[in-house]
Amino acid sequence: MNSDVTVVTKKQTTQPVISLNKRKWLKKIVFYTTISLGALIMIIPFLWMLSTSIKDQGETMTLPPQFIPETITFINYAQVAESFPILKFLFNSFFVAVTSTLGQLLLCSMAAYAFSRLHFKGRDTLFFIYLATLMVPMQVTMTPQFILMKYLGWLDTYQGLILPGLFNAFGTFLLRQFFLGIPKSLEEAAFIDGASHFRVFFQIILPLSKPALATLAIFSFMQSWNNFLWPLIIVSNQDLMTLPLGLSILQGRWATDWNLLMAGVVISVIPILAVYLFAQKYFIKGITLSGIK
Amino acid sequence: MVGDKGWKKWLVISFFLLPNFIGFLVFIGIPILTSLGLSFTKWDLLSTPEFIGFDNYKGIIEDTEFWSALKNTLLFIIAYLPTVLIVALGIAMLLNKNMKGRAFFRAAYFIPVVSSWVAVSLIWKWLFNPAYGLVNYFLSWFGFVGPDWLQDPQWAMIAIVLTSVWKDTGFVMVLFLAGLQNISETYYEAAEIDGASPLKKFLHITIPLLTPTTFFILIISLINSFQVFDQVMIMTEGGPAGSTTVLVQKIYNHAFRYFEMGYASAVSWVLFLIIFIVTLIQNRLQKRWVDYEQ
């Protein structure tokens, strides 16, 4: 053992200091080059999108491709806005995402309260059924949901866009887990003081659960904002389209006008990126907490 | 419960649970059962549903398009999963060090994650453009003539896999980063004293201690990739020549293009069964390789 250590130290001391430093630098250079190349691969498509969106159509077809167009034009944005109600798409996306987020927060937190703080017969069985449905992919439920919407006359309506998305077990599960970690003694003291369940829920449980609520909010918002399949199924009226669906019909119309298409894509990407940059911490935390897309 | 009795107690429970429960029943519970029922019928949405027993399921077995959709889905998964895992782990390892600009790099890798699939698909469709796309231009630097990615049955699925890896790397990376940060430094310090090489440390400390994270990522990525759809719908609509038709595209086509609600439901139940069985197998196998020692 002892001799081992001396061998190691000997090895290190025999190496010239300069080469060690050099190797360190080389390592650093390789490291930053790799990581920057990776970051470039992530960012270039977005820069290319931006650059295409301010080109005229002729310039999208030049070789070699030019990142900074010779004539910068914003007319593509105007043309997209003129031919498509893109502001309406934007509004619809916001409206649907915000309402379904608020709705999910309220409905899930209330149910989670019942599943974690109230006691009644069959509670755990019911919760298990909730959980089991998480395994069923949305493709199984989408056909009957579509039929239901059709019979309710909810195709092409906001409630049709919003309501079915409010009730998946994920939010209830996430919040229940969090509520279970809140000490019982806190609410017991409140009950002794004569507080009702409503007060305990709104004034003790919810304020203490801000991290979990933020996580759920980020998820519902992102999911709703980016959702494509459900709007595709139930919306055919342009006035009710959300951005992803609107973009897909843009592509149908302008299959080759990449400058116009990219202008549309920019309009759809900017808001969610802004939300992300603003709430970065929560996005990352939310993903690590739940790992659900 | 404190002070609550009889009807009053149920009033409180109803207030908290009923709104969610009713919605859950209407939009999740009943649709699941309906879909199972529909899978034994033939129904075009207009006439009355006709009970046909297991005919839809028999039809699926004889449906060559189903098998090719299943094959395409599996091909997607086989190409996508290992790639995204390795790339994301590599980046997570790099970003786990104390370094300058870590926040910037993390944000950069994460931007595709928050963008919608439709936006990402459109951007990549443009990048894969055979004449003016950046991908083929980049390949031309090295003397390659790139294919017509999305129009060529041999390349279309590869293009979709590349796009998917690009979009999801940041997501998987964040999960790996969380896992890496849970590994205590003392393991590495001990290994250092023993004179272990970086490769040895990676193989004998990082990899084993990361298996719970990897298992979790595998489960959710596998479930998600069986449901791959948005990028396929936007980039190829399942073409060319059915080379990228995946299971969900098939369900979508039957339900909302051909209005065969019964058949679509049956395929969706087969999809569920596949996901269920694969998840069960993964759970069984986890004892063999997942290390919960920490």
Automatic annotation (TrEMBL), chain B:
Keywords: Cell membrane, Membrane, Transmembrane, Transmembrane helix, Transport. GO terms for biological process: transmembrane transport. The keyword Ligase does not apply. It is a multi-pass membrane protein. Its main location: membrane. It comes from the Bacteria. It is found in: Cell membrane. PANTHER family: ABC TRANSPORTER PERMEASE PROTEIN, INNER MEMBRANE ABC TRANSPORTER PERMEASE PROTEIN YCJO. This is Sugar ABC transporter permease.
